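Changelog note: in this version the structure field was regenerated for every chain. One regenerated record is shown below for reference.
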Amino acid sequence: MKILAVSDMVVDQLYSEKVAERFKDIELILGCGDLPYYYLEFLVTALNVPLLYVPGNHDPLYDEKKNACHAEGGCNIDRKLERVRDLNVAGIGGSVRYIPNHANQYSQTGMYIRLASFLPGLAWKLKRSRHGLDILIAHSPPRGIHDDNDQAHVGFSAFVDFIRIFKPRYFLHGHTLVYKGNIVPPLTRVGPTTVINVYPYRVLEI
């Protein structure tokens, strides 16, 4: 399976009438946050494949009850697990808090609390499926892996523990900018998990 993972920046090569020709083998789109919904909706329409995504710190707060603030044709999997074409894909959105009371920003403790509310259901569903977690998509990186020193781009300690416990095959994230030179290379192995910064996009073959 070929997967298109995107985050943070609209790319002209993708936001093009020729995207279906250039990326004709793509079977799944994964969004790692901070992308305008019109861009995600365009990709879904042009490639005609499933889209799973999580919100970034610049995205509006998703209202699940009203089904508002979301990308049409896609599925927001923040703290959810979806099975797509034999792959178990989970998601966790948001960044570390650097603006008080801002949507999709959390303290280190706050992210542990968010994960704690999600992990029992995740563990049960994985056990029921008799299949491990293939991909975790996040907006922010794990702390100490692909993150930065400034307040807005520190990674989450909770993600380090998540990787240690659940051992996903892939942990995909955005948020930190490769061109700043702080990420060389944007791919790191942590035990059986491959952590990948997909900013602004990356094609994976699984």
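Spot check on this record: Helices lie at 19-22, 37-47, 108-129, 157-166. The chain has a mean pLDDT of 92.
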